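Why do we bother with holo predictions? Because pocket geometry can differ from the apo form. Keep that in mind while you read this record for S-adenosylmethionine.
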Amino acid sequence: MNPMNIYPHDTVVPFKNSTESKKKQVESMFDKIAFRYDFLNRFLSAGIDVGWRKKAIRELISLHPKNILDVATGTGDFAITSYEILKPEKITGIDISEGMLDIGRKKIAKSGLENSIELLRGDSEAILFPDNSFEAVTVAFGVRNFENLEQGLSEIKRVLKPGGKLIVLECTKPSLPVIKQLYHFYMKFITPKIGKIIAKNNAAYQYLNDSVLQFPEKESFIHILNQSGYRSSFYKTLTLGICTIYCAEK
Ligand SMILES: C[S@@+](CC[C@H](N)C(=O)[O-])C[C@H]1O[C@@H](n2cnc3c(N)ncnc32)[C@H](O)[C@@H]1O
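The structure, written out:
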């Protein structure tokens, strides 16, 4: 564990007996499940994630960003939605998993968007672009997987232009009593079983549950954003609090 990282979430790793770093484990886990990732996303969220993505991207409409960086882009869904809503000049997606990127590149080619969306292998904790490069940065379901959250947020801030916006979409835990119990049952027992059957990998979907449980959310995540130097940070919860949009400015 990085001694600079004071939050306990980076102790949650996909493969509990592995001696590899969280980053290496996350990369190989996503490489393994990439072939079923999109299907499972739609299936496990009953398609609701599509609406969450659109709502999050709409937070950027008034900014009219020309250049957008989609961090932890995976199979490119957030980048594609972003292009459809915002029509920027260019979207660059970065991710550490080549398996996820391969699927994303095929989807982008199929949609004829190769000139507008480019996917590159890249680490959010050492972003391969100069300071002040993008008007907006987006991260959907990615920050929870960073090995060093603060390092990732500080790198994102570095590449944002002054006045630029960060949009984070992330899974959160509901707080309403009955919903809370149903949610925990679903995440603890149903999700890993479905992950095992469909993606042949229950560790990945067990990790989904464990990482959501431990990740700092809502006010705690806003506090981390502010500590990382962002301003005007706020959040909006979606669908009974099981997902949250965070917005912040450089
Ligand atoms: C749950 S997926 C989200 C993918 C996509 N953003 C979406 O909305 O479907 C998380 C992604 O984060 C990527 N990831 C994790 N740590 C990363 C890092 N340090 N830098 C870049 N990508 C990272 C993983 O490889 C994976 O593709």
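DSSP finds eight helices and seven strands in the chain.
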